Amino acid sequence: MLKASNAQQYERDVIQNNKTAQSKYVPIVPAVKQGAEILLCLAKSPTFKMRLTDICNHVGIHKSKGYSILSTFKDFGFVEKDPQTKTYSLGPALLFLSGRVLDSVYSQQVVAPFLESLAKETQSTTFFGLIIDNYLFVIDKHEVDKGVTLTIRLGYRFPFTYSSHGKVLVAFLPKDEREKILASKELWFNGDNAPVDLQQLRYEFARCRRLGFSQDIGVVDPRYNSIAAPVFGLHGKLIASLFVVGVFDKKLIQPYGRAVAEYAKKISYAFGADVEQIYERIAQEEL
User: Fold this and answer.
1) pLDDT tens-digit profile of 47-88?
2) What pLDDT, on the 0 to 100 scale, is given for residue 113?
3) Residue 64: is it exposed, middle or buried by C-beta count within 10 angstroms (0-12/13-18/19+)?
4) What's the whole-model pTM score?
5) Secondary structure (3-state) at 229
6) Which of 210, 238, 214, 235 is nearest to 226 (CA)?
7) CATH homologous superfamily for 94-286?
8) Span 101-107, mean pLDDT?
9) pLDDT category, 139, cuts 50, 70, 90?
10) Any idea which fold 30-91 has?
11) Could you tell me the residue ranges of all domains in the chain?
């Protein structure tokens, strides 16, 4: 049996050892840490795409472990795999997560009120899409309950040239970039790689640049009409599109189009764009 003095010293030693152990304990789950390192690895890649071997070598894990983590991320949309090149890249689900961050910084403070007002004015569902690489990602929307349900979820990814917002984005690009896109074999203006009339498109681009909005009258989907306008950021950079989708009558295209264009300008102002200067420059280019 320990003497009283020894017992007290023993108790002090146990307490000290526990404190030391607690101070060294770091609550990190290795698999989660490795998953985070994989996502950061893909984000830092100059080409945005990497093969399994390169990812695992960079992170320092076995290929089987890396494959399991990537497959799990793929199921949740956090990464995508190109079946032809066998490469991995960041997935659109991450945009939804970043979109939630943007909600607190931009959407709730800037975009959301405009979406709500425009939705009430047009009695249509309004969307805000952000340009990332060659896609337009939906990061916010406001629905109007009219018995019409649109299943376009937050984080949904549209091809850059898709529908009315595709027309408006290409229309407001510099001429050389527009022509480069029109020379592409994959154009989505009329839907899933449907045929397009390039001469008609150029006419629509000029009209769009003059009016500030573009339209799709039941072309991509005969059930709906859509109107889109460009959104600019600092230094006049084209960063997004504001668009509405609904079952409104064709005779409302012009007044709704002017409303969408005006709200897009207000959002652009909120993002720091000099809208007047941008449209003055565009008008000069059209002369």
Assistant:
1) 789 999 999 999 999 999 999 999 999 998 899 999 899 999
2) 92
3) exposed
4) 0.67
5) strand
6) 214
7) GAF domain (3.30.450.40)
8) 57
9) confident
10) Arc Repressor Mutant, subunit A (1.10.10)
11) 30-91, 94-286
Written as six digits, the tokens of 167 are 């027309």
Q: Please name the residue that has the structure tokens 């690895």.
A: 41
Which residue is listed with tokens 């001469």?
A: 199
